[in-house]
Write a structure and sequence with these properties.
The protein is mainly alpha-helical and about 450 residues long. The protein has one domain. It has 20 helices and no strands. α3 packs antiparallel against α17, α9 packs across α18 and α11 runs antiparallel to α12. The longest helix is centred in the middle third of the chain and has 28 residues. The chain is globular and about 60 Å long.
């Protein structure tokens, strides 16, 4: 942005935490209802920022940051699981008009996206792109297997996209040096990363507003949630991380398309193929579509996964490379990963405890197929956010930092109205082209 505005200096991340926290309180805090759940949610969102900053450091400070994130995430996990029981949901309007919220949201989006365009990647940011040939064509070798393992489960080609830094806590020698030489042959990777990051954030913001207008019947609610998403320190710090925001965009639009089971299944399949972890949403979503739309949803999900596997077959030079990339895509090494970062890397003896956490998470996901028995759109939102948040507790590669996987769904849950009438039987047609119902048969009976 300093190239466009004379004298502009990018804010330090800590300064932005203070400013964004004060702005969040000024716009969204309900001073007339201090003890409301909305205010508690806002304080929880603000509490994520210190842990995120500490986790970007090193040594003991980093460990404290991950513990902090896990504690705040535990609070939100309980909050999300309790959300289906919160029937009384009064409309708590923001302290700013829709025009003011729109202006703030658009301004923040422009500043964040310009920073993505103008920020120069560092050596570590380009590491994934630099190893592209090794991952795609040499994954059958020990070196290629190591390159795959360091990223964790997910679609291998997604990790070839460079990371574009935005607000770095520790400046490297290359940061801010316009004369630093660019790596030859990596300009395409940089352009791809910038484009995907910008388009993904646009998709998240537009999707949140569209859900508010379409499914909440209140466009102001969608604008409020989208503006808060752009205001949070996490969004400013991780703007250029495609592996964070792309799955979030797919999940948001899967929720928007929930009345079209085939499309929703296809988008959820894309998200699961991209980062693997959304596959644990299947019990919940299958439970939602159990009475109607199950076949269409399942077909869309499986078709998308089949297409992704086919693309790996065409991009792999040999059978061993294809098998290695397919195993990574389906999380084959997620149980006992060779490369561990974040919370679980501080003590090797903690490995068995991680398996226990994973077992508890699996029980949670299986239980969501049965509870609550009557699933509506509100249940789909809150429990989907709970599942994606729950993956952070056993994610071996920086678990706790991938907030964007659940943050948009969490914000929609916080702002949503009562959606008890939005169940599959009332909003889906009986066939592919059947007319959708506008009321419940249960009530009619």
């Amino acid at each position: 942005m300093e190239h466009l505005l004379n004298g502009y200096k990018q804010l330090d991340p800590t300064t932005w935490v203070y400013l964004s926290s004060l702005l969040t309180i000024a716009i969204y805090f309900k001073f007339s209802r201090v003890w409301s759940v909305r205010n508690l949610d806002l304080l929880g969102l603000i509490a994520l920022a210190p842990g995120l900053q500490l986790a970007q450091m090193s040594g003991t400070t980093q460990q404290i940051g991950f513990v902090w994130l896990f504690c705040v995430s535990g609070f939100f996990l309980i909050r999300l699981l309790m959300d289906p029981m919160m029937v009384r949901r009064p409309l708590l309007e923001p302290n700013l008009s829709p025009g003011g919220l729109t202006f703030i949201g658009v301004s923040l989006l422009v500043f964040l996206m310009v920073n993505v365009v103008t920020k120069k990647p560092t050596e570590s940011d380009l590491d994934g792109a630099r190893r592209s040939d090794e991952i795609v064509s040499r994954s059958s070798t020990p070196e290629g297997d190591a390159s795959l393992a360091q990223h964790g489960p997910g679609y291998p080609l997604l990790y070839l996209v460079a990371s574009i830094p935005n607000k770095t806590l520790v400046k490297s020698d290359a940061d801010g040096d316009p004369d630093a030489p660019n790596q030859s042959g990596l300009s395409v990777h940089e352009a791809t990363a910038r484009s995907m990051a910008i388009l993904s954030h646009l998709a998240v913001v537009i999707g949140i507003v569209a859900i508010g207008a379409r499914h909440f019947d209140n466009v102001r609610t969608g604008i409020s949630a989208a503006a808060l998403y752009l205001m949070l320190p996490y969004t400013a710090l991780m703007t250029g991380r495609v592996d964070h925001v792309l799955p979030a965009a797919l999940l948001v639009w899967a929720v928007f398309a929930y009345r079209r089971p085939a499309i929703a299944g296809g988008l959820l399949g894309l998200a699961a193929g991209a980062i693997y972890y959304p596959v644990f949403l299947l019990p919940l979503w299958l439970g939602f579509y159990w009475q109607r739309g199950l076949f269409r949803f399942t077909l869309g999900f499986l078709t998308t996964l089949a297409v992704l596997v086919a693309t790996l077959a065409f991009t792999s030079n040999n059978l061993d490379a294809f098998l290695a990339q397919t195993k990574q895509m389906f999380g084959w090494t997620s149980l006992s990963p060779e490369h561990v970062e974040g919370f679980w890397a501080f003590n090797e003896a903690a490995g068995p405890y991680r398996i226990s956490v994973l077992a508890a998470f699996a029980v949670l996901c299986g239980g969501l197929a049965l509870w609550p028995a009557r699933k509506n759109l509100g249940t789909l939102l809150s429990c989907s956010a709970a599942v994606m948040l729950g993956t952070q507790f056993w994610h071996a590669q920086g678990g706790g930092l991938y907030m964007c996987w659940y943050l948009p769904l969490l914000l929609l849950t916080i702002f949503r109205p009562n959606l008890e009438d939005r169940i599959a039987l009332s909003v889906l047609g009986e066939s592919w082209f059947g007319k959708r119902r506008t009321h419940l048969r249960i009530k009619a009976a």
